[in-house]
Amino acid sequence: MRPDILRRLASSRAWFSGVRLAGCILLIVGCAAHAEDPSSASTDHGIVGYIEVDDVIDRFSDRYLARAIEQAQAKGVDTLLVRIDTDGGAVHYARSMFKRILDLEADGIRTIAFIDFRAISAGALIAYAHEEVYLSETASIGDIGVVFQSSEGEIKYAPEKIETVVRTLLTQAAEQRGWNRGMLLKMTAHKQSLYRITPPGGSAEYVIEDDLPEFLAAHPEVDRDDPNQVIVYRGPDRLLTLTGLEAVAFGMATGNVADLDAMHERLGVTGDDVVDLSPRGIERAAWALSRFAPILAGLAVLFLLFELKTPGVGLWVALAALLGTGFLLAQYSLDLIENVELLLIVIGIGLIAAEMYTMVGGGLLGTLGGAAGLTGLVLAFLPNELTFDFEDPVFVDALTDAGFNGATAVGIVLVGALLIIRYLPRSAVLRRRLAVTGEVTATSAGPLEARAGELMGRRGKAAEALHPGGTVRLGKESIRARAEHGAYVPAGAAVEVVSVEFGEVVVRSVTGGSEETGSG
After folding, report:
1. In a domain, 27, yes or no
2. Region of residue 243 (phi > 0: left; psi between -120 and 50: alpha; otherwise: beta)
3. How buried is 101 (Cβ within 10 angstroms: 0-12 exposed, 13-18 middle, 19+ buried)?
């Protein structure tokens, strides 16, 4: 063979060998990179359930999460995807939700949090209870500062006793889920510094101030005075908050995904495959109504009492039923009201109605009814799972809120009743409307109105002080009465009937006349 041909063949073989070697190297590197990238590993997530926590962290969120987890367990869900979008809320309920998520590990349910916007304060606490956390690149997580509002309206950090509880939960998340303890604690420990420590020949580690002495004792090679090894990464009064990119870079998140569809793709499922456990319409309606629960309860009682004073109208009882249904829907769905509370409210309304119509007991029935109704209302705003322990700050706070809500409802009833007494007798339009309604329904008046001709002009005396409602005696008959124009009439004063309205006589104080002695 010719030498030039041999040289060409040798050159061709060397070129092919080089290509093959480069290809092998690239293949090995690619396989290694694929093996080191956890996001590219194929994992069977089984049945995936979807939960949304996208509002203030409070009792509503906690009750919803409990219901959703119970449903997930009943449906055999293997992986629970929880979308979190919140600025935080109450520590007590965040703690409960944190534990609910953490306990799912014992049930063999994998938990994954997804944050597309923000998980701040209590939201971050709940997020780090999950095994994996994914964020969009523009999302944020952290700032678990425990604050409260003083009576003067000033926002202050909570006492050390409460902050310690949150630090303990974050430590538990670090131990059980593998998140960096120092960074987690710096999200809530506003008085401590977070140190970045780079040992000689090692990688950077982040250590909270409380743990610094122990860390330095375990790493004698670290020179604390060398700024190349030890620096303050976050000083006091600066809580740690991370963007989505920062969280992944610092190992405080599993990965970045753009949106929920991308999250589904990461899990190897589609939206149609996911078991939807997001809040139901009735739950969201109950959450909305619960914010007005004291107003609903107060107006329902007020309209019911108004209906009792305006027989034959029907409008007020319909409004009372509508508002009462909204109140019960909200409280029952939140597990705040049970049969005992409802029974007390019904008894209270019944006793007040009996007082209005029979006058038996001289006000005692009304007093007992008011006490029973108020007790029922307060209990209807008090969480059922709490025990009566006045040394428990959670119970004291809940009782204070329940008392305020109950007092608000009662205040609406009292103010409304006073306005009715003050202005209703002067409302000619309403009187005409009542008369027309009564005429059409063939129930133009109650028993007392039917005797209007007989009662007009009769004189008697106030059996009790009228301010402006009370009782008068006309001869031997006791009749429910109201002083004209809301005036005050002392007990025993002589009075004269000037009209009959809404099941009672309207009287004015008179002088110089004598009380009649009719048989009634």
Report:
1. no
2. beta
3. buried
Query: Do 376 and 348 form a contact (C-beta atoms < 8 A)?
Result: yes
Q: Are residues 127 and 142 in the same domain?
A: yes
Domain residue limits at 207:
191-237
Q: Is residue 246 helix, strand or coil?
A: helix
Residue 9 forms part of a structural domain:
no
Q: Would you list the DSSP string of 344-406? A: HHHHHHHHHHHHHHH-TTTTHHHHHHHHHHHHHHHHHTS-TT----TT-HHHHHHHHHHHHHH
Do the beta carbons of residue 388 and residue 395 sit within 8 Å?
A: yes
CATH of the domain at 489: 2.40.50.140
Spatial CA neighbour of 502 closest among 315, 306, 298 = 306
Distance of CA 436 to the CA centre of its chain: 46
- The model's pLDDT over 326-383, given as tens digits with 9 standing for 90+, comes to 898 888 877 788 788 888 888 887 887 777 666 555 567 778 888 888 888 888 888 8
- CB atoms < 10 A from the CB of 404, how many? 13
Reference 299, options 420, 145, 141; nearest CA is 420
Q: What is the pLDDT of residues 178-188, one digit of tens each?
A: 999 999 999 99
pTM strictly above 0.70: no
